[in-house]
Design goal:
Blueprint lengths: L2 E2 L2 H5 L16 E5 L7 H13 L3 E7 H10 L4 E5 L6 H10 L6 E4 L8 H13 L3 E4 L9 H4 L5 E2 L3 H8 L7 H15 L2 E4 L3 E5 L4 E5 L10 H13 L5 H23 L5 H12 L7
Parallel strand pairs: 1-10, 2-3, 2-5, 3-4, 5-6, 6-7, 7-8
Antiparallel strand pairs: 8-9, 9-10
Helix pairs in contact: 2-9, 2-11, 4-5, 9-10, 10-11
Length: 286
């Protein structure tokens, strides 16, 4: 049975924050993305992860994007990707640089991938370190499915990416979309967050619906914001279907607040400004 996400459900999915916690205790997150064309995507994801509550965010972007990323915010720890695209050499170099105690990582936002084997290598290394992983955009390719099957990985496709990854096109009917998401989540042992006017999140056993119906959120970048929120919550809640559901809800709430203020003239950075307000009902200190 599908459950519609509400405050009471989401509150149980977002862990409280310890009053005596120290830097790093509330999440160490890696964001890998960006390319010559899409420099902004990993910036949006990284800032969203910070706004959601992660303590440390490592933004890994191609060298040509480093200056823009660093100048965008002093809050980010920027790691240069040695090549303009994800290559095997760049993947090997990256795994030697990133901290060993990462909690979560999100990969793919605006990322140019020269070699899909490089993506597979990187994913395998992070999973071997028990890093909670979410994949988006260019990382959603069928070659990655054998590597992530049964590994508690979250994928966050829109409709076209879902077809590329799983070979079937979701229709507009919510019941059909839900059944299709459940089927592929179950068969591939992953958590799927299918983005749309109503987000559908399923691990094949539990399925949650997040009705947004926000016309303003078709603007580019809102999915990148979502990826950062997913990674931040995954860094504290290692149950992917719960973390992904909470992230979808928070992202949608931030979008609703942005639309209330700006009407149909929302940009993705507006969502960043409203993440704290969207998270506030779930803030708890112990």
């Amino acid at each position: 049975m599908n459950k519609v996400l509400q405050n009471a459900i989401v509150k149980t999915f977002i862990p409280s924050r310890k009053s005596l916690s120290r830097k790093g205790d509330n999440g160490k997150v890696l964001v890998l993305g960006g390319s010559y064309l899409y420099h902004g995507a990993p910036i949006l994801s990284s800032l969203a992860a910070l706004r959601t509550g992660a303590d440390l965010v490592y933004a890994c972007v191609p060298k040509l994007n480093v200056t823009a990323t660093r100048s965008c915010s002093p809050n980010l720890i920027v790691i240069p990707l040695v090549d303009a695209k994800l290559t095997r050499g760049a993947a090997r170099k990256l795994v030697g640089i990133v901290p060993n105690d990462l909690d979560s990582a999100t990969i793919g936002m605006g990322l140019a991938i020269q070699d899909r084997e490089a993506l597979r290598m990187l994913v395998k290394d992070l999973l071997d370190r028990t890093v909670m992983l979410s994949l988006d955009a260019s990382a959603l390719v069928p070659e990655i499915l054998p590597e992530i099957r049964g590994k508690k990985v979250t994928v966050t496709p829109h409709t076209g990416e879902f077809k590329r990854l799983f070979g079937e096109m979701p229709q507009d009917n919510i019941k059909q979309r839900s059944s299709l998401v459940q089927k592929h989540a179950r068969e591939n042992e992953v958590t799927i967050l299918l983005k749309g006017p109503t987000d559908i999140i399923s691990d094949g056993v539990k399925t949650f619906l997040n009705p947004k119906n926000l016309a303003s959120m078709t603007v580019g970048g809102t999915g990148d914001v979502l990826s950062g929120i997913v990674a931040a919550i995954l860094s504290k809640n290692r149950k992917p279907v719960e973390a992904a559901s909470a992230a979808a809800f928070v992202n949608g709430r931030a979008g609703a607040l942005a639309q209330k203020k700006n009407g149909l003239h929302v940009v993705a950075t507006d969502l960043l400004d409203f993440i704290p307000a969207a998270m506030k009902p779930f803030d708890r200190i112990r």
